[in-house]
Design a protein that fits this description.
By secondary structure, the protein is mostly beta strands. It is built from 2 helices and 38 strands.
């Protein structure tokens, strides 16, 4: 383990309001929100607070950091090759060391103008301080938003003949309200931390497609299609964690976390030809309730050449899903459409024990090893029934080399088990895309063996470079298949391989201009999978081959001014279904920001998002009956969103 510390004074020129502002300015560090894995132990990001990860699974480290005032941060430690399980297998983390402060907090008000020329506010506030014998922090968020768009959609036959041309307009409106907080105090010789979260949103979507059959737009419209969605979600989380330092420098920790969510979605599609005459209508009503409980206990030794850590975790997950899918013809007759596993209840019971060992072979070499065993039982009831018992071994070993204070190299191999998407057990319908999917009661989690090599270099003038290469062997990958009975769904398919490289760099450009800095991150990945439908090799579904982000920033503390320009983007993503493939692409996101702290205790910022707009594409290819047969048609959709202009005023107290 290698530690580089940044004191609070290091961040003064950035005028941070919260710990989140400070973490964003750590050289060569990119915030990672964690992965959607099983339970609690394997889901953490790369942020610790006083040596422990935030106790919330849903909110993630970003939300926890936004509640901490900058005045409470003594320093931020950048840790390379951390040995504790709190690091969740991350090669680089930050650990925020906090101090007790009086009551403090911040509030911000943003006004955003989108292309529909309507101003929408966003209000955030956080408060931190002592309450009786507790040290508490909390935050509130109120955010309405809109995403208007317009574009075209073209449908053609197998040889390119035009079948339908549509002019599209879209209007997305939503509102979100979120409350979150935590409180800590001494209890039973240790520290007790309680955290909670309540999050709700309501989103209304309306797409209107004016169609011209077999021709380009001219004259009157031949048909009109309206697609609407109404999605409502409410989620809550409550957790408690108690930890105690023992006399032999060991730490004992117990955690309990329960979360619940309810998602209701109503959607419909109506086609009129000619206008005013309905020829078809599709209606979908779905409700999904989820609950998860996780209990975890660990005992770890933090000193000495040999540092063991052992513990266990138990978890319970439940999904209760129902779907009603119907069509209405021109005569008004409703016809229910039957889909496999439309109404199901899925339960999972899981237990795991693990042992971690960190051993300092020498001052410059450290060996880390982990052995874990997992047992689970998954049962499905309702329209589909199944019960299966699973067991997995999850070993991991890594070796780190630190030849100097500014260089670290880590090589490792680990075997892990992926988190099942419980939604795949149940049927679903996308009326806007004319696509349905049956539920599969036979699903098993994907397993993965990953070999990696990571490098972290720190140089003069704030230079930071971290890079890595990896190769993964995946078994039981989840891909589209033909379910028993002939419906289309998701199931365990063949094995696959994934490999790639990543690089992140941060450096001062003060030789070019005072206070200027460049941060860049990029990742390239490739995959290969033998498609059981076609017998040919292809990439995994929903696979993103490359992503990048580049930000140029200049801080001018004497003028109480800063500016930044950030560009980020990713490659086209292809989704595979049994009767079609769909490629989704989007142009780079451009964000321009100017900030000023001219007014005492106030930070004013102006942000322009995508000043020239942002273009999106979706290209679908249809086959009948599966992708192993001939092409029957194609669809090309093009639309544009933005620009957005936001003015934000933020005050700390």
């Amino acid at each position: 383990m290698q530690v580089k510390s940044y004191s609070r004074e290091f961040f003064t020129d950035f005028a941070p309001s919260t710990a989140l502002d400070m973490v964003g300015r750590v050289p060569g560090f990119t915030l990672n929100e964690g992965e959607a894995r099983r339970g609690f132990g394997d889901t953490g990001g790369n942020v610790l607070i006083n040596g422990a990860r935030p106790g919330s699974k849903a909110g993630g480290p970003r939300e926890a950091l936004s509640r901490i005032p900058a005045s409470a941060v003594v320093r931020i430690d950048l840790v390379t090759n951390p040995t504790t399980s709190e690091a969740s297998g991350q090669s680089v983390i930050v650990d925020l060391i906090l101090q007790e402060t009086p009551v403090s907090g911040s509030w911000s008000l943003s006004l955003t103008r989108t292309r529909d020329e309507v101003l929408r506010p966003k209000v955030e506030a956080s408060l931190s301080g002592p309450i009786a014998d507790w040290r508490a922090s909390g935050s509130v968020l109120f955010r309405p938003w809109s995403d208007p768009s317009d574009g075209t959609r073209r449908r053609t036959g197998p040889v390119g003949e035009l079948r339908l041309f549509e002019q599209m307009t879209g209007d997305v409106n939503g509102v979100q309200i979120r409350l979150s907080g935590d409180a800590r105090r001494e209890a039973l010789g240790g520290e007790l931390v309680v955290n909670g979260r309540l999050d709700g949103y309501d989103v209304d979507v309306l797409f209107v497609r004016s169609g011209f059959i077999g021709r380009l737009p001219a004259g009157s419209v031949d048909q009109l299609q309206g697609v609407s969605f109404d999605d409502r979600s409410l989620s809550a989380e409550l957790g408690a964690e108690w930890s105690r330092k023992l006399s032999n420098a060991a730490t004992f920790k117990v955690l309990s976390l329960v979360s619940w969510s309810q998602d209701d979605s109503d959607s419909g599609s109506r086609i009129e030809r000619p206008l005013g005459t309905r020829i078809s209508e599709t209606l979908s009503i779905s409700q999904r309730n989820k609950i998860e409980w996780v209990g975890r206990a660990t005992m770890s030794a933090g000193e000495g050449r040999l540092r063991p850590e052992f513990g266990g975790e138990a978890a319970f997950n439940r999904l209760d899903s129902s779907l009603s899918f119907t069509t209405r013809d021109s005569a008004g007759t409703l016809t229910p459409i039957s889909l496999p596993a439309a109404n199901v209840v899925v339960d999972e019971y899981r237990a795991e024990v693990f042992l971690n060992l960190a051993y300092d072979v020498s001052p410059s070499w450290t060996l880390d090893a982990r052995a874990a065993s997992e047992w689970s039982e998954i049962s499905v009831s309702g329209d589909a029934r199944n019960r299966q018992r699973l067991q997995f071994l999850k070993p991991e070993v890594s070796l780190s080399w630190r030849p100097g204070p500014d260089l670290s190299v880590v090589a490792g191999v680990r075997r892990s088990v992926g988190q099942l998407d419980f939604d795949s057990f149940a049927a679903s319908a996308e009326v806007g895309a004319d696509r349905t999917r049956g539920g599969n009661a036979q699903l098993r989690p994907q397993t993965e063996t990953r070999a990696s090599l990571d490098l972290d270099v720190r140089g003069q003038g704030g230079l930071a470079l971290n890079a890595g290469v990896f190769h993964e062997w995946r078994e039981d990958v989840l891909e589209p298949i033909i379910l028993p009975g002939g419906a289309f769904g998701v199931g365990n398919a063949n094995s696959a391989r994934v490999w790639g490289a990543r690089i992140g760099a941060s450096t001062s450009l003060s030789w070019l201009a005072r206070g200027m800095r460049l941060d860049a991150n990029g990742e390239w990945r490739e995959s290969v999978f033998d498609d059981p439908l076609t017998g040919r090799s292809r990439r995994l579904t929903d696979f993103t081959p490359w992503t990048y982000s580049v930000e140029l920033r200049q801080d001018l503390p004497e003028q109480k001014l800063s500016w930044s320009a950030k560009v980020s983007g990713e490659d086209e993503q292809v989704s595979y279904y049994v009767p079609e493939s769909s490629a989704f692409g989007m142009g780079p996101e451009v964000r321009l920001t100017v900030e000023s702290t001219y007014w005492q205790d106030l930070k004013v910022s102006l942000t322009v998002l995508n000043p020239l707009g942002r273009r999106f594409t979706r290209d679908r290819t249809f086959f009948a009956p599966t992708r192993a047969t001939a092409v029957t048609g194609r669809e090309a959709a093009r639309w544009e969103e933005g620009p957005d202009v936001s003015l934000t005023v933020k005050r700390t107290f």
